[in-house]
Amino acid sequence: MKLRLVAFVAVAVSTGALADTTFNLGNLVGPTPIGDMVSGLFTDSYDFSVAAASKGAVVAFNTWYDITPPGITLGKISSFSGMLDGTPLAFSSISTPISPGVNQEIQTLAASTVPLAAGMHTLTIAGAADFSSAYTGSIKVTPVPEPETWALMLAGLGALGTLAYRRRAR
Q1: What are the backbone angles phi and psi of residue 6, rounded to the nearest 5°?
Q2: Which uninterrupted H or E stretch holds 68?
Q3: What is this structure's pTM?
Q4: Strands 31-50 and 18-27, how do they pair?
Q5: Disulfide engineering: 137 pairs with which of 50, 60, 118, 154, CB 3.0-4.6 Å?
């Protein structure tokens, strides 16, 4: 009986230590929020698709607090990292003292103007979180004009230029 209880607790603890979550965002057409409450080792995947060639921008934030006299950290995600279709996101961190002995740390993962082909894509956010941590952010998709759109726009500008030239010539 004791052996079964020990085995059950070991399985429950080991499965809670690594959280893998997949979010299906569907077809993106603009800014879409992301974020999750996490603890322990985690890997969150955001699957999404774009209908046509686009440019993507991603940003994710983890804000945590370091209280120095007792040595407490609240909300920290260690090894905070992310990838968009296998390409690492840039990491930065800013520390700001907000009162004596209390620092606010903001970790940022970001990528801007990433080319996205039509089809499925995956954003992955991972790390090792304190007992209760969170991150927030967004994915923004902007369609890239197709060559036909550029040609039509240039033809229209040419027609406007021709009309303006003829009016001046009169």
Answers
A1: -60, -45
A2: none
A3: 0.72
A4: parallel
A5: 60
Phi, psi at residue 8, to the nearest 5°? -60, -45
Residues 130 and 72: beta-carbon distance below 8 Å = no
Of 55, 124, 120, residue with least CA distance to 87? 124
pLDDT of residue 81: 97
The mean per-residue pLDDT over the stretch 30-39 comes to 91
What are the structure tokens assigned to 78, written together?
Answer: 């260690």
Element (H, E) at 133: strand 119-143
Grouping H, G, I as helix, E, B as strand and the rest as coil, residue 29 is coil
Query: Tokens 């070991």 belong to which residue?
Result: 10
* Residue carrying the six token digits 């209880």: 5
Please answer whether residues 4 and 110 qualify as being in contact, where contact means their C-beta atoms are separated by less than 8 angstroms: no
